[in-house]
Structures are given as C-alpha cells and as structure tokens.
C-alpha cells in the first residue's frame, strides 16, 4: 500500500514488465504522459500495446531491443507522435531480479521533457536574436559617429543653403 501511494504521487511515469514483456504495473502518471487509460494498458504485452496504440511503437521497440540484449540498465530519449503532438521522453530502466531461478523483468521510468526541450530551444533562439541585434547595431555606431564628425567638420564651411541638407543627412 505504501509503495502504491508513492507511485501514485510521482510525476514520472513508472511501469514494470515481467519476463514475458507483459505490463504488470503502471502508475497514473504513465497513463497521463501517454494520454491513454490506465486500465486498458495493464496486462498487455508490448506487442499488443504496439498493435492497439501506434503512438507507443517507438517506446515498445526500444524496450524490446533492450530486453533482447539483456541489458542491466539503460537510458534513452524517445520521441512519440500522437494526437496531442510530439512528446519527448527520457526513459530509464533497470532489470528486475526476483531471486534464484525466477524470471526477470524491467522497471521503467519515463519523464516527459517536452516542455523543458521547448524552453531550451526558445532560450537558444532568444540568444541568437540578441546576438544578431548586437551585430546589426554594432556597425551602425561607427557610421553614426563618422556622420557626426563630418557634420561638425563641414557645418561651418558650407553655404547656408547646404547646412539644412547636411543636418538632415547626418541626423537620420
């Protein structure tokens, strides 16, 4: 009961699979991240999940490949495409060992990092815009200073009719 209460309150999605690649447990956050009803996921194999929910194919394929290699631990960024758009997940897994002679499974934790990735991308574009604005502004300063020097140098030497033209040309 304690472990179930902890899993229910996590914002990360947590699932466990048995050696048959059957989904044994899943917390509500996993269903929410995937945008699927929790009760429809439990008890299904990865193959069934792929058939029933095409958006889960990248996740199921990654899990199956790690099952095949018998990797102890793994971590991978997985992108899912569904009705709600693109979701970027960081998935970490570790192999479960239940004792001598018992078959193994995996526990997998999925974190939706889509918002974080978008925020990083927006920050990067803001930095590009800031630097570009600086580069555009930078050459204008020496040009403006040169125009002011020309104005000061020739203002007193020009006939009165040309002073207004020089003023207009150097103050824009």
From TrEMBL:
<keyword id="KW-0808">Transferase</keyword>
<keyword id="KW-0418">Kinase</keyword>
<dbReference type="InterPro" id="IPR035965">
    <property type="entry name" value="PAS-like_dom_sf"/>
</dbReference>
<dbReference type="InterPro" id="IPR000014">
    <property type="entry name" value="PAS"/>
</dbReference>
<dbReference type="InterPro" id="IPR013656">
    <property type="entry name" value="PAS_4"/>
</dbReference>
<dbReference type="InterPro" id="IPR003661">
    <property type="entry name" value="HisK_dim/P_dom"/>
</dbReference>
<feature type="domain" description="PAS">
    <location>
        <begin position="1"/>
        <end position="46"/>
    </location>
</feature>
<dbReference type="InterPro" id="IPR036097">
    <property type="entry name" value="HisK_dim/P_sf"/>
</dbReference>
<dbReference type="GO" id="GO:0000155">
    <property type="term" value="F:phosphorelay sensor kinase activity"/>
</dbReference>
<dbReference type="Pfam" id="PF00512">
    <property type="entry name" value="HisKA"/>
</dbReference>
<dbReference type="Pfam" id="PF08448">
    <property type="entry name" value="PAS_4"/>
</dbReference>
<protein>
    <recommendedName>
        <fullName>histidine kinase</fullName>
        <ecNumber>2.7.13.3</ecNumber>
    </recommendedName>
</protein>
């Amino acid at each position: 009961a304690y472990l179930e209460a902890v899993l229910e309150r996590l914002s990360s999605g947590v699932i466990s699979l048995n050696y048959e690649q059957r989904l044994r447990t899943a917390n509500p956050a996993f269903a929410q991240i995937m945008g699927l009803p929790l009760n429809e996921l439990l008890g299904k194999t990865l193959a069934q999940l792929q058939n029933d929910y095409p958006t889960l194919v990248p996740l199921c394929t990654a899990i199956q490949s790690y099952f095949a290699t018998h990797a102890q631990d793994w971590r991978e960024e997985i992108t899912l495409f569904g009705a709600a758009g693109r979701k970027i997940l960081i998935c970490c897994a570790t192999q479960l060992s239940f004792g001598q002679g018992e078959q193994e499974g995996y526990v997998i934790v999925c974190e939706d990092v889509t918002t974080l990735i978008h925020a990083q991308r927006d920050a990067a574009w803001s930095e590009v815009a800031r630097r570009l604005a600086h580069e555009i502004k930078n050459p204008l300063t020496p040009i403006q200073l040169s125009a002011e020097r020309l104005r000061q140098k020739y203002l007193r030497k020009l006939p009165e009719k040309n002073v207004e033209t020089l003023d207009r040309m150097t103050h824009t």
